[in-house]
From TrEMBL:
Matches recorded under InterPro entries: Cyt_B5-like_heme/steroid-bd, Cyt_B5-like_heme/steroid_sf, Cytochrome_b5
GO CC terms in record: membrane
Pfam families in the record: Cyt-b5
Gene Ontology molecular functions: heme binding; metal ion binding
Domain of life, source organism: Eukaryota
Designated name of the protein: Cytochrome b5-like heme/steroid binding domain-containing protein
Homology family: Belongs to the cytochrome b5 family.
Cytochrome b5 heme-binding domain location: 72-155
Keywords associated with the record: Heme, Iron, Metal-binding
Entry-linked Gene3D superfamilies: Cytochrome b5-like heme/steroid binding domain
Species this chain originates from: Aspergillus tamarii
Length: 177
């Protein structure tokens, strides 16, 4: 595929064009051939380009450290796409990724099977939900249901909620007791 070339490159700040000028990333990805004819429209939506990427499920026996690295900007893009789309019909074709302990899980198909319902999973699309996951699930559920859903590892994705403290044992009852 040496005859195809990326017209613009995507950076965290936006799209860096051949001229070196960076513009916002909205609808600026396109390819062209050396033959002088575009093989795709000049303004292809980022969501469409993202859908063409391949993020396959990884072998469950593979260790987390050996998983392919997924840049946090890609995971953030999944988050932005999901939360900027309000209609169920437009969300139907979007990825449903969760991050647990810096491992990315593709729950797109699994969300319908989740015993807690799809709302729980959809509320964390493209985000870290580590402590929330471990409050309701154990290693057995992760091994049986989670490991087959792994697509990669990432870093720098923060949980948007502060973990509340866990209380163990009895609290003091005060002087009336």
């Amino acid at each position: 595929m040496g005859w195809l070339r990326l017209r613009h490159t995507l950076t965290v700040a936006g799209v860096k064009e051949e001229s070196g000028h960076t513009t916002p990333a909205r609808n600026k990805i396109g390819i062209y051939s050396k033959h002088g004819k575009d093989t795709a429209p000049a303004t292809t939506s980022l969501a469409h380009v993202f859908q063409q990427e391949d993020f396959p499920f990884q072998d469950p026996s593979m260790s987390d450290s050996d998983l392919p690295y997924i840049d946090p900007s890609i995971v953030s893009f999944v988050d932005q796409q999901w939360h900027s789309s309000s209609e169920d019909a437009s969300r139907k074709h979007l990825h449903v990724w969760l991050v647990i302990d810096n491992v990315v899980y593709d729950c797109t198909q699994f969300q319908r099977e989740h015993p807690g319902g799809i709302d729980v999973i959809q509320s964390f699309v493209g985000q870290d939900c580590s402590w929330q996951f471990w409050r309701f699930h154990g290693r057995e559920q992760m091994r049986e249901y989670g490991r087959p859903l792994r697509i990669g590892r990432t870093s720098g994705i923060q949980n948007r909620f502060k973990e509340p403290p866990r209380y163990v044992g009895l609290s003091t009852l005060g002087e009336d007791w």
